[in-house]
Design a protein that fits this description.
The protein is α/β, with parallel strands linked by helices. The protein contains 10 helices and 14 strands. About 35% of the residues lie in helices and about 30% in strands. Helix 3 packs across helix 4 and helix 5 runs parallel beside helix 6. The longest helix is centred in the middle third of the chain and has 14 residues.
Length: about 290
């Protein structure tokens, strides 16, 4: 099964165009959706999650019309938004059981109990299943969020900026779980963290100002910049005062000195040396030329 999006557009009141004729084909597996804040990622996610209408275009999951067959799509959809609320004094097992009933999982309470216990085990929350979700750490809450999103064995899982505020250990555990899930279903990971996409996703897209700038494999995107990324260390004064005739991709302080990476079709001179492009270079090169 694959998700096919064609010419999807959305404009908000006031003339803000969140999506401008976006077309994508997303196969089974982990798919990364990259873009800065305000790029249109969350709008696209909400439309695919049947929470928002598009102005025009189409989206089909296999033979199902995502924009019209909302009730049927929700039966095979899992969604973890950037932020989600919980009942403050309800335990994980009670809340997940309640959500399972609302989603029509199982034919009776015994069936639902088996499903809920299995999911809590899968996301490593069995030991704290009787604690209120509101007392969980950020990583635990996100793992609970994945558990509720996996209710009903979805064919499409959408996660929107899922690791904000997580420490490195929680982030790794969360992504290991997502990668396991993504072996058999479509998982769309919307994020602005480039490294997450490089490590997890075989395919990706870059969106900026509602427009699709790139769609393909991260490795292909990196290869497309071969011979066009140059780098050097320079004093802060030179970085500020130099008239830049080519885009700066990134600047990082290394031992207190700026290390600058630029995009240029040929040798820019001034001591710059060729550098192997990475996905962060790809991301900023597309944004700088958009």
């Amino acid at each position: 099964m694959q998700l096919t999006i064609e010419n999807l557009s959305k404009t908000y009141p006031g003339g803000v165009q969140a999506l401008d004729r976006v077309s994508l084909t997303i196969p089974t597996g982990m798919f990364g959706l990259l873009g800065p804040n305000g790029a249109g990622k969350s709008t696209l996610m909400r439309i695919l999650a049947t929470l928002q209408n598009a102005d025009s275009g189409s989206a089909k999951l296999g033979d199902m019309d995502v924009l019209r067959d909302r009730v049927e799509i929700r039966k095979i959809l899992g969604y973890l938004p950037q932020e989600f609320g919980v009942y403050p004094r309800v335990s994980a097992v009670r809340l997940l059981t309640h959500l399972a009933a609302l989603k029509g999982v199982g034919t009776n309470s015994r069936d639902r109990k088996v499903v809920v216990e299995s999911l809590l085990e899968r996301v490593n929350l069995s030991d704290v299943r009787n604690k209120a979700v509101s007392t969980y750490s950020g990583g635990m809450r996100q793992r609970f969020g994945i558990a509720q999103a996996l209710l009903g064995d979805p064919r499409l899982l959408i996660v929107d900026e899922p690791t904000a505020g997580l420490d490195p250990g929680e982030r790794n555990r969360f992504y290991n779980l997502l990668a396991e899930v993504g072996e058999s279903i479509i998982v769309i990971l919307s994020t602005h963290i480039v490294q997450d996409v490089k490590e997890l996703c075989k395919n990706m897209a870059i969106i900026h100002h509602g427009k699709l700038l790139f769609h393909g494999a991260p490795s292909v995107a990196e290869q497309g910049l071969a011979g066009r990324v140059w780098a050097k260390s320079m004093p802060k004064q030179e970085l500020v005062e130099r008239p830049w005739e080519y885009p700066i991709l990134s600047t990082k302080l290394v031992a207190g000195t700026p290390y600058v990476r630029v995009y240029c079709e040929s040798d820019p001179g001034h001591g710059f040396e060729p550098s192997e492009p990475d996905l962060e270079d790809v991301f900023f090169s597309f944004l700088s030329r958009a």
